[in-house]
């Protein structure tokens, strides 16, 4: 059984794969709670994506102590299924790579893949601590995307970095044009997230001749924003973990 891990800034996500099937999905707040997952499991393969180096080392040590496998740590030097066309590969987050790898894998294994052509763009959008848009161009190139403060980070910063603005959440959203300060903040945060996705899609249509989009949504804040989307998408909470597995499979000897 393969244990795939995604170590993020806010949470640690883990998935257990039996052959090609995800049989368990978990999300943890810290390494201690994470360790309870694999104590009773029969794990013989481990793959890790991480954007938190200190936690990578800690969790790798825990896994070595409880299993007979040395964790496969995904870094920028391993082989990917996608061609990475990015100017600063040394700063590219591994979670972003795994997110698009997961999206590409799911698309390739869908009925829509038979229509894949140069006007098709695949997007993975991760609503985590940061909100990231990641773009795949035909026939399988990761070409970059966009990074913005995350949904929760926007709300928190407006409250903590100003003297008078209140703490607000997504439940305070009423309409696009806020009629009071609370609804104005809620509108600003929600429409900032939704709007920059729509602007990205519009740019791909007008400047890169895109006519067909496959959009995959993931991340801890995704379900709070989904009601506000007016474009087609597929929500896959385990998207990064699927990408971790596909990268691991590519590099497995």
Primary descriptors:
253 residues; alpha/beta; Nucleotidyltransferase, domain 5; 2 domains; 6-stranded mixed beta sheet; 5-stranded mixed beta sheet; 7 helices; 11 strands
Please explain how this structure is put together.
- The protein is 36% helix and 26% strand.
- Helix 3 (94-108) packs across helix 7 (239-251) and helix 4 crosses helix 5 (181-207).
- It has two domains: 2-73, ATPase, nucleotide binding domain (Nucleotidyltransferase, domain 5, 2-Layer Sandwich); 83-243, Nucleotidyltransferase, domain 5 (2-Layer Sandwich).
- A hairpin with a 2-residue loop joins strand 7 (120-127) and strand 8.
- It has seven helices and eleven strands.
- By secondary structure, the protein is of the alpha/beta class.
- The strands form two sheets. The chain has a six-stranded mixed sheet with strand order 6-9-8-7-10-11, sandwiched between helices. It has a five-stranded mixed sheet with strand order 3-2-1-4-5, sandwiched between helices.
- The mean pLDDT is 92.
